[in-house]
Each structure stands twice: as C-alpha cells, then as structure tokens.
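lol forgot to send this yesterday, sorry. struct tokens for the thing we talked abt
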C-alpha cells in the first residue's frame, strides 16, 4: 500500500476531471500528477534523499495538496507543521524530526528570518505562496517549471509516510510516525463504512490540511477520485459560497465550526442541496446544534468521528 497509488489511479481513471479547485485556479488530475512529479524531482535535486523529512508551514492550498503527494513520490517523509504554533514550537518539531527542508506560504513567509535563527539545521526553505519571493527562499513555481517529471519512487508499506505532531496539550508535542499502510488502511476502512464519501464526489477542505483529520479525508477522496475544493481556512460565509459554487458533496468540521456554518445568516440564502455528508469530531456536539444543522441541511447525513 502507498499513498501515491491514489494519484496514479485517479489520473488513469479520470485524467481530465478537476483534481483541485483553489480560488480561481483549477487543475486536472493529469496536470496535478505532472506537477507532483516535477516538484518531487526538484526535491531530489535539492538533496532530499530517501527517508528525509520535508515540512510544510502553510494554510490550505492546491500546492499543499501537491506537497502531500510529491514528498512520498520523491521517497521522502511528510512533516506538516501546526500553523497555530509559536516559532519555538515550530523549531522544536523541525529539529526533533531532523527536517532540513520546509515549505512556507505567504502567511508564514515573515517568519523565515526567525526560523533560520531558531532552527540552525534548516537548509532549504521553499516559498509556496503567490506574493513576492522572500529573501533566502526558493520559488515553488520556478522549481516545478525547471524540473522534468521523475517516476514515482513507490515508497510503500511499512515505510514512514509522515511524522505528525500531537497538539502538545499535556507537554511537548510528540511526533507520531505513520506508515503508508497505516494511512491507506485507515482510509479504506472509512470508505468501506459508506457513511462519508461516494465515488466522484467533491470534498471541501476547510479544516486545516496539516491535521490528520483533514488528511484522512484527503487520502480517502483521492482514492475514490473526484475533486478537492480547497479553502485557505474556515470562514463561514466563504465556505457556504464554495459549497454552492462548486457543488460540494462532503466536508469535515469540528462541532464549533458546524455551529458557525449553520448560524451564518447567508446559509438561508445559499443553495446547499449538493451537500450529502458532514463528518464532525474533535469534541462533543450538542443536540441543539445537530438539530439546527439538520434543519439547515435537510438532505445531509451527519457522522461523528
């Protein structure tokens, strides 16, 4: 089992179907696999070797989606960083995992000088945003353009897929090492339950993509094919507009965000009929909130994870 098999199958089955929608930018599965293979080549050219860790400190985006596939494609290990952490906490996770290469977007580009000081082992910083290239970083888009695609390394089985740091609520965060088999088996179990996703659907990424909860949705939707509709972060009105515009079929939220979504005044004026499944978790949900959600989204099933 390996994560990148989902990408290879999707491009085989539906190469011209949109894989990602991010703002006004949409890319097919064919375009996505080409960019993934090119960025993987760039990582190898930068010295990333088998088993090396590659971090990302960024809000949700289509480039985050590509990172999740490109790192294992290059035979390396994912290390998504919690965007809510301080520089000291970020530096600890990078040092603790031995991460020498990290991607940053526009939101976190201003932290680059501090990260350089706090994390002396950091060798390469890649800017994966759209704004001006920060000093001391490499351009993600230039790396993709400058490199020819390479074959998938087929990193698989018990090999690490990623290191995912816990919240650190009772002490320092701890890096949880998950294999390709761990992640794919979990996704297949979720798919087999039949309570969240259907083939060819459209998943809304409003929860943070650095978190394992959203990553579980990402790999399951990729295995099933369909489209990833990506928002940088959760804003109720923006999420509602995305559901209507892109005919989103499922999303994953924590209970407080479910409440924020259905309490948003725009919900009453938005066509949400495409939405079929909402998975929620991370805390208890009150009967009042779930009843309200069922009223606003009458055609939707709700599943607690």
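and heres what i got for the seq, position by position
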């Amino acid at each position: 089992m390996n994560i990148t098999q989902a990408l290879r199958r999707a491009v085989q089955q539906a190469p011209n179907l949109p894989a990602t929608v991010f703002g006004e930018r949409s890319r097919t599965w064919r375009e996505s696999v080409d960019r993934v293979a090119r960025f993987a080549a760039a990582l190898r050219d930068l010295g990333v070797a088998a088993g090396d860790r590659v971090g990302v400190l960024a809000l949700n985006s289509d480039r985050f989606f590509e990172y999740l596939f490109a790192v294992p494609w290059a035979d390396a290990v994912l290390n998504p960083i919690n965007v809510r952490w301080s520089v000291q906490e970020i530096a600890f996770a990078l040092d603790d995992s031995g991460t020498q290469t990290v991607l940053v977007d526009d939101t976190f580009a201003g932290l680059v000088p501090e990260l350089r000081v706090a994390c002396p082992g950091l060798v390469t910083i890649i800017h994966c945003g759209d704004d001006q290239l920060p000093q001391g970083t490499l351009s993600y888009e230039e790396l993709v353009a400058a490199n020819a695609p390479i074959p998938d390394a087929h990193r698989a089985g018990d090999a690490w897929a990623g290191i995912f740091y816990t919240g650190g609520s009772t002490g320092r965060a701890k890096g949880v090492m998950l294999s390709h088999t761990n992640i794919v088996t979990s996704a297949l179990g979720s798919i087999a339950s039949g309570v969240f996703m259907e083939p060819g659907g459209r998943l809304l990424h409003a929860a943070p993509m650095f978190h394992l909860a959203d990553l579980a949705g990402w790999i399951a939707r990729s295995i099933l094919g369909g489209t990833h509709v990506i928002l940088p972060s959760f804003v109720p009105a923006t999420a509602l507009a995305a559901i209507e515009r892109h005919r989103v079929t499922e999303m994953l939220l924590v209970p407080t965000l479910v409440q924020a979504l259905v309490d948003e005044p725009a919900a009453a004026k938005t066509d949400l009929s495409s939405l079929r499944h909402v998975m929620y978790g991370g805390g208890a949900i009150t009967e009042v909130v779930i009843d309200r959600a069922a009223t606003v989204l009458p055609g939707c099933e709700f599943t607690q994870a």
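The chain is about 40% helix and 20% strand. anyway ping me if u want another try
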